[in-house]
Amino acid sequence: MEGGFIGNEAYQQHFKTKDYLKTYMSFGSGDCDVLFSNVMDKLHKTFITDGIKGKTLIDIGSGPSIYQLLSACESFQEIIATDFLEQNREEMQKWLKKDPDAFDWTPMVKYVCQLEGNREKWMEKEEKLRKTIKQVLKCDVTLANPLDPLVIQPVSCVLSTFCLESASKDLPAHRSVMKNVGSLVKPGGHLILVLAVRTNYYMVGQDKFSCVYLEPEMVENAVKDAGFEIVCSEVLQATIPLAIANAQETIFLVAQKPNKTHGPSIYQLLSTCESFREIIATDFVDQNQEEMQKWLKKDPEAFDWTPMVKYVCQLEGDREKWMEKEEKLRKTIKQVLKCDVTLANPLDPLVVQPVTCVLSTFCLEAACKDLPTYRSALKNVGSLVKPGGHLIFVVALEETYYLVGQRKFSCLYLDPGMVEDAVKEAGFEILCFEMLDMKFPLALTDGQRVGFLVAQKCNEA
Ligand SMILES: C[S@@+](CC[C@H](N)C(=O)[O-])C[C@H]1O[C@@H](n2cnc3c(N)ncnc32)[C@H](O)[C@@H]1O
């Protein structure tokens, strides 16, 4: 087999599982020890030290290998291993069933146990991994649903080591493979990738298998394009004999799919809809607007607001009226628009007549990088209120960050005086400004106080 892209058929014919294991996985006496110890170190850090965990992890293109799952089995309740090739899936099954002919992974198992603090626990570790791998499935990353014909609910984590570069013939194919694989991750979940970069082949026995040539930025861009935010990305160096592969660099990347369910909230509108004939909801982030639309359209995947709806109904005297309340709010929200509070007209390109009331909860402090930006954002938002109308603000005070999933978002530090000055400067008279003490865990935010402010726009002279 020489030159060109090695596609699915050639893989089936030429990929010799035993040769692959002998060349790459003879840990302790092989040419690839540095490479694989680097990868296992990183996986240990990711799953154990950084604590990425969840219910289900899918390993895409597992091949006959289990080394990549040794740390993951401590953090996930179930693992689904997958590969395109039957011979690889069979080899994995052999190990799961303790077939005497199965490959001996103990050197790698012991290495990971040592990272975890006790090299002697390798037999327990093997048992744990065997119990955690619940299925070994066929997959083809070139399909929109790589597990076709199986359709599964997106999972907390997808891992893939040294597969996506070998399954893509060129950059466009690589980008689409990334989207296919990324579609298996649920919002808030992680994608963990190990790929050989700046390479174009690897050997299995006498057969050469192609890899798409990738610069690290190409991988990162494909990941972002698939809808992920990169949490960390690192290039690992390891020298491998050219007779095995011209891969001296490996990218280790952790990315997260933004959690859409934290998106635009409706709790702040539950009382509002009793006092206003129409509400215009706005958000800067497209997926937040989409999430709100889901709730408005009663999409079964929409966030469940009923506990908060019931709470407000109870305040209003009848907790049982929560379904009516939801209907009322759905009818009152007339539009969901994009807005950007840093623009002079936050609803640009739309121009609306100033309205009776503008409400904003936990928004400006998250959207503004410094105090001058905050003061001007307040004027921008204030310009939407007509003279005599009200501005109602809920603002996180003395906060510098908040977390959504694993991701930290910065927040502008504001004390009550800064808020008051900005509100007055925007042409409002403060009617009330109350401080509410919060007891948020530091793992969520460092803000411990919330300001509740009602202001009225001064009538023009
Ligand atoms: C270099 S091996 C890596 C195996 C394993 N992840 C590891 O780290 O040892 C590449 C794997 O990609 C799989 N593969 C190739 N094309 C594929 C495709 N279209 N879909 C899924 N897997 C594929 C091969 O069967 C092979 O097991």
Automatic annotation (TrEMBL):
Q: Which PROSITE patterns match?
A: SAM_MT_NNMT_PNMT_TEMT
Q: Which Pfam families match?
A: NNMT_PNMT_TEMT (PF01234)
- What protein name is recorded for this chain? Nicotinamide N-methyltransferase
Q: Membrane-spanning residues where?
A: none
Q: Which InterPro entries match?
A: NNMT_TEMT_trans, SAM-dep_methyltransferase, SAM-dependent_MTases_sf
- Similarity section: Belongs to the class I-like SAM-binding methyltransferase superfamily. NNMT/PNMT/TEMT family.
Keywords for this protein: Methyltransferase, S-adenosyl-L-methionine, Transferase
